[in-house]
Fold:
Amino acid sequence: MKRNACFWVALLAAVSLSGCVERQMTLATDPPGAKAYYNGTYVGQTPVTFHFTYYQAPDLKFEKDGYRTFRTTPDVKPPLYQVFPLDLIAETSPFTFYDKRTFSYTLEAATKTDTAELVKRAEELRDETVPPR
Structure:
């Protein structure tokens, strides 16, 4: 009887240690080649795929020469098998669950600013705000 109990305990321990959830996020931009940041950490040039740990609303930032810096905070909701109490089953099952997310964004071309026009506007604003002496 003791052998049977030890066998079942060992089997249960082995099964509970084998399950996991693989979370992957892919970030893509049009045009490709933008620097991608996930919560302030550089993750590579788009398109880039990396593993993430937490379901949240991450701060995404994309930078590319000749294009405006783009920031967004997409809502990354967990799949049903990652919601309590089902997450306990997914994490301890003998199977591996895969959650792959892809986010695609179009970058806006940067507009060239006329320096003379910018200085003129700044002077006009200064004149409006500074009282005459």
